[in-house]
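Hey, can you fold this one?
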Amino acid sequence: MTTKRTLDLDALLSEDSTFYGDLFAHVVEWQGTMYLEDGLHRALRAALQQRPVLHARVLVL
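Sure. Predicted structure:
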């Protein structure tokens, strides 16, 4: 489940979108549901490349 309402596809799919950022997506698990807090461009790229795995840091609350 994502936490953003809108997507800027130009920013999400740019070649250098992770150049200065973290290598892992950030996920928060709360009451059994995982929320994608940051790293939507990583999840989108993985989905477009049909990769079933996304590496992420998970904070369990």
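Helices lie at 9-12, 40-48. Let me know if you want another pass with a different chain boundary.
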